[in-house]
Amino acid sequence: xxxxxxxxxxxxxxxxxxxxxxxxxxxxxxxxxxxxxxxxxxxxxxxxxxxxxxxxxxxxxxxxxxxxxxxxxxxxxxxxxxxxxxxxxxxxxxxxxxxxxxxxxxxxxxxxxxxxxxxxxxxxxxxxxxxxxxxxxxxxxxxxxxxxxxxxxxxxxxxxxxxxxxxxxxxxxxxxxxxxxxxxxxxxxxxxxxxxxxxxxxxxxxxxxxxxxxxxxxxxxxxxxxxxxxxxxxxxxxxxxxxxxxxxxxxxxxxxxxxxxxxxxxxxxxxxxxxxxxxxxxxxxxxxxxxxxxxxxxxxxxxxxxxxxxxxxxxxxxxxxxxxxxxxxxxxxxxxxxxxxxxxxxxxxxxxxxxxxxxxxxxxxxxxxxx
Length: 371
Fold this sequence. Notes:
Layout: E1 7-23, E2 26-40, E3 43-49, H1 62-78, H2 87-91, H3 99-117, H4 121-124, E4 132-134, E5 136-139, H5 145-157, E6 162-166, H6 173-182, E7 188-191, H7 201-205, E8 215-216, H8 225-233, E9 238-240, H9 247-255, E10 261-264, H10 266-269, H11 272-284, E11 289-291, H12 298-307, E12 331-332, E13 342-344, E14 354-355, H13 357-363, E15 364-370
Parallel strand pairs: 5-6, 6-7, 7-8, 8-9, 9-10, 10-11
Antiparallel strand pairs: 1-2, 1-15, 2-3, 4-13, 12-14
Helix pairs in contact: 1-3, 9-11
């Protein structure tokens, strides 16, 4: 479906979290989020840039993404007609890196294309393998083990099907031991966010006794070879996150046996087109995938729901209810999770939810229109 964009509108939001979220990178108390609105033929498509406030997860951060979108991505998308949403990636591919900035625009064009066709986004991207998305939660590093145990108990009572806890040196083996004592049968995984080195093999091998679903990204963000060496030494499956930015990276990691599971994040790989390619590579090799989260607003969360309807998303992802993060989200209704720990997909055109424009205006701190 050919699309000639009329305008691209950038908005920066500031949204305080209900509770701080801590990883090995540090604590986050509020999110600075960039939204991308693309307009054509009287309709709008919406995307979210999922980078953090600082260049710690990858090289991108809010201010850098704004400049990349304004000065490089938007002019290239407005210059000429797009044959389809899948063309956005190739139109911006010569911009080195910056997948999250580019991906925010790419998913917005996919949303616009779905609305122009009168289809739900999940259908437009080729999803629909399931009507309900299995959900897990990601719990950050807490002030105490007791606080962590209380949070896990609350989330399991809410019905979530999988618990992920953040770990780092000094907050790992003994913490997980206490979690397993209290919750011996829950589906449990640990996310290290690149906090360890290959020299920590013997320490990480202690995690094998806790029958974890996986340990996510234990080593450096750009290190596939050492992950292969670590995986060979562990019984626990390794899941790669930060390492995998393209389908080619996924192919390399799988061939090297650097992981047994992949996390797919829309922003990290630059949008739906590349996410589908990563999904297809993993599926062809029998590697299960799940959808990772980046503390998104409802717009990014709804995009994750659509992505997770692709057939190889067989593990519960980090797609959880709006109320876990926000007192009030910017979509209506907020994303909700059933008592069985699932999100029911919606059939409205585009990402399936309405924009709460009043709330959006309240949390918007800057706006710029291009075109």
